[in-house]
Amino acid sequence: MAISSSQMLALDQNHLIHPLHVTGGHSNARIWSEGHGAILIDTDGKEYIDGLAGLWNNTAGHSAQELIDAAARQYAKLPYASGYVGSSNEAAINLGQKLASICYPQINRFYLTSGGGEATDSSIKMSRYYWKLKGKPNKTKVISRMLGYHGVTFAAMCATGIPAYWPMFEPRIPGFSFINSPYPYRYENTDPSVSQGVAAANELEQRILEEGADTVAMFIAEPVQGSGGVIPPQDDYFPRIREICDKYEVLLVADEVITGFGRTGKLFGLEHWDVQPDIVQFAKAVTSGYFPFGGIGVSDEIADAMDGSSQPFMHAYTYSGHPIGSAIACAMLDLVQREDFPAMAEEKGERLMNNLSSALGDHPHVGDVRGLGLMCGVEYVKDKATKEPFDAGDKIGDRIISAAIERGLFTRVRGDVLCLAPPIVIENSEIDRLSAILRAATIDVLGT
């Protein structure tokens, strides 16, 4: 006998601990039953636009048959094989070749993980390993940015610049420090001799000098900060970052877990500014969320250093190079290229931004509508002229999200910034409906 949604929710609360678990936070949870394209359906049969593509990852949408078929074929042939040295599988090898063909030109070797947090930990360990091979064992420190999100495995959490993730797990690992986000809407440039973007980038140079250049291994950054509030940087920001990293021999690690494989209108985010990283990390859209999967790609220089050493890279995951994840990722990359996901994201992102600007741009409490490709942020403020934020206790973002969910849009917020990154396969009519829902939800909470 089928059980009701309320009974299922009671079982959920009795037996599961969810990410970001907090008492009362799950009381009005939706229990998802099925999904098609950009639409999620709950156990009561109500439909919602998936406004964040799951968690930024499901770019191909729900129930993409070619990904399902790729998984089924691989399950029938070889469901698991170790990826430890001395063992490999056809699907992982094929994936490595495909990744090399589309990635930054100087990146051709890949270490595969089970997701983005593991990718961050792998980047940190790879950078330390590399500098030891280069005879610079003191280069161990990591610099990242406030509002940056790099995962919540322990080292990844230490690189994540969202303080709410820290208190219950401190003390954090030593050797992690932060600079400010470039945040064009709010960054205060105190150096009138340079642009806002260069001033924000120059904070990296200052921090490297404070830490000691001979101690800093890497700088990690998302091309567009995602969970921190959808923050695209100024156009001159990353070119200056690359110059600084080169000057002080600091590895530039691009966290493309959200921005990779077409989301921003390019295959990879730093392509917007003609910048190449030393390490790129990916996850999420590489399998469109159909299998937990991720990895890092390293520059030819790093790969050559590894190949020239007899010291093993003592870093291992049971599921590294998993054949099912690799097979789905191969099918996903074929889909990304065949359907031209970057062009789709650029076109649909322009439609979404235009819709949001038209629907909300003149609202007295909408301070900023921003984005790149098909990822957008709407920032609500108490005073539009001064950019004064609402008091945290007002919970404006949470209230707008609740009103949007009631109208059939499911997404997330960072404080009073509403984040949008629907599946790249979303229909134009669904983009229009999403925008209308958000306008109605905004008026519902904040008036006209």
> What integer is the average pLDDT?
97
What order do the helices and strands follow? HEEEHHHEHEHEHEHEEEHHHEEHEEEH
What's the structural domain tally? 2
Percent helix: 25-40%
- N-C termini distance: 48 Å
User: How would you sum up the global shape?
Assistant: globular
In angstroms, what is the radius of gyration? 22 Å
Q: In the CATH hierarchy, what is the architecture of the largest domain at level 2?
A: 3-Layer(aba) Sandwich
Estimated structural class: alpha/beta
Q: Give the CATH superfamily of the largest domain.
A: Type I PLP-dependent aspartate aminotransferase-like (Major domain)
Low-confidence stretches: none
Share in β-strands: 15-25%
- Overall CATH class of the largest domain: Alpha Beta
Number of helices: 13
What fold name stands as the CATH topology of the largest domain?
Aspartate Aminotransferase, domain 2
Q: Which sequence of strands runs across the widest sheet?
A: 4-10-9-8-7-5-6
Could you walk me through the main structural features you see in this protein, from its secondary elements to its overall organization?
The chain has 448 residues and is an alpha/beta fold. The protein has 2 domains: 31-51 and 340-446, Aspartate Aminotransferase, domain 1 (Alpha-Beta Complex), CATH 3.90.1150.10; 66-338, Aspartate Aminotransferase, domain 2. The protein is built from 13 helices and 15 strands. It has helices spanning 5-15, 53-56, 65-77, 90-102, 116-133, 154-159, 196-211, 237-247, 300-307, 323-338, 341-360, 396-407, 428-446, and strands spanning 32-36, 39-42, 47-50, 107-113, 141-145, 176-179, 216-221, 251-255, 279-282, 294-299, 366-371, 376-380, 409-410, 412-414, 417-420. The strands form 3 sheets. Strands 4-10-9-8-7-5-6 form a 7-stranded mixed β-sheet, sandwiched between helices. A 4-stranded mixed β-sheet has the order 1-2-3-13. The chain has a 4-stranded antiparallel β-sheet with strand order 11-12-15-14, covered by helices on one side. α6 links the parallel β5 (141-145) and β6. α3 (65-77) runs antiparallel to α10, α4 packs parallel to α10 (323-338) and α7 (196-211) packs parallel to α8 (237-247). The longest helix has 20 residues, at 341-360. The chain is globular and about 65 Å long.
